[in-house]
Amino acid sequence: MVTATDDPVFVMHGARSALAGGLLHIEEQVKAIELAVVENTGLAFDLAKTLVESACKTIITERGGSYDKDDNMSQLFKAVKQRVPFLPATVAGEAGARRSLEQTLNGLSTALQGVCELRNACGFASHGSESPRPLMEGIQALLAAQAADAIIGFVYQVHREDLLRPKVALLEYGDNPEFNEWLDDQCEPVRILSLPPYQPSEVLFRVDQQAYRDLLTDYKAEAETEGEPGDAKREGSAAE
User: Fold this and answer.
1) What are 198's strand-pairing partners?
2) Do 39 and 68 fall within a single domain?
3) Is the pTM of this model over 0.70?
4) At 12, phi and psi to the nearest 5?
5) Strands (E), 132-240
6) Containing domain of residue 72, as a range?
7) How far, in Å, CA of 106 to CA of 160, rounded?
8) Which of 164, 182, 202 is the last residue of a domain?
9) Helix 209-226 / helix 177-186 crossing angle, nearest 10 deg
10) pLDDT tens, position by position, 22-67
């Protein structure tokens, strides 16, 4: 057994950042994992899983949600993903970014769950005196602790920052019909083979929401200073 020192071999930087951010009740669990990775590797697996579950329950509660006492780690983590906006608003509408981040988070969760299941399959929890501890156990325990640390550090920080961030109303396509009509008048319909034509305003909204938002801002600014965009041109034509 390795004797604990003031400089632990493994430090859960992500989890300790969550501690500083307000997740105070996990402190003893964090300290226990940091020691278990070195002193009691079999225990580290269970502690890592428990720590993620504890953090998820806190986040769900702080967001006004609820969970069943029998929910497992995967169910709790899924509930968190449904409540916490992991992507910035500027790219929230980009399917590729959402898919990549979800794959990353799922990968971390799967890694942790897989290591815990591997522990059970290999009998890490019930070694007898005649059965030596697997040589990979310490490395596996470190993997479980690191996966838990990465999940907690990222998820809790995003959760807290989102709660503190001033809320911006979500932009919906149907909220600005006059702008959509004006934009459609400026552009030709989008045609793809024999499919019915698409309105340019809706295509822009779906493909590049930030560009749509920027044009909408310019449109509203011009309307406030000079009247509706295009009014002067229409008035000149009427006078002729």
Assistant:
1) 190
2) yes
3) no
4) -85, 85
5) none
6) 13-164
7) 21
8) 164
9) 100
10) 899 999 999 999 998 888 887 888 888 889 999 999 999 999 999 9
